[in-house]
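Q: What residues go here?
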């Protein structure tokens, strides 16, 4: 169980970093910084969120889909994975 707790702590730490990045965007917009600087901050947040989404999605696949649905035929499992990726990575 401690392994799961360490993973949760890592994910929470990532969210805190993203929150700090969003705060930096707000400060940058409020102070009238250059558009290029704001765009770079936005790209950083997008990268952080995408990375977090990928990690949580990977954990979901490994911990839930591949164990709970292991009795599914490979083609049905593949379709479930494709649906999952399409739903969350739009």
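A:
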């Amino acid at each position: 169980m401690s392994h799961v707790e360490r993973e949760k702590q890592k994910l929470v730490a990532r969210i805190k970093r993203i929150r700090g990045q969003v705060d930096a965007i707000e400060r940058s917009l409020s102070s009238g910084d250059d558009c290029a600087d704001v765009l770079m901050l936005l790209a950083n947040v997008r990268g952080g969120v995408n990375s977090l989404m990928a990690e949580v999605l990977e954990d979901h696949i490994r911990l839930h889909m591949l164990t709970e649905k292991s009795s599914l035929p490979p083609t049905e499992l593949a379709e479930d994975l494709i649906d999952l990726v399409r739903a969350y990575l739009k």
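A: Context that may help when evaluating the design: Residues 35-68 form the longest helix (34 residues). The mean pLDDT is 87.
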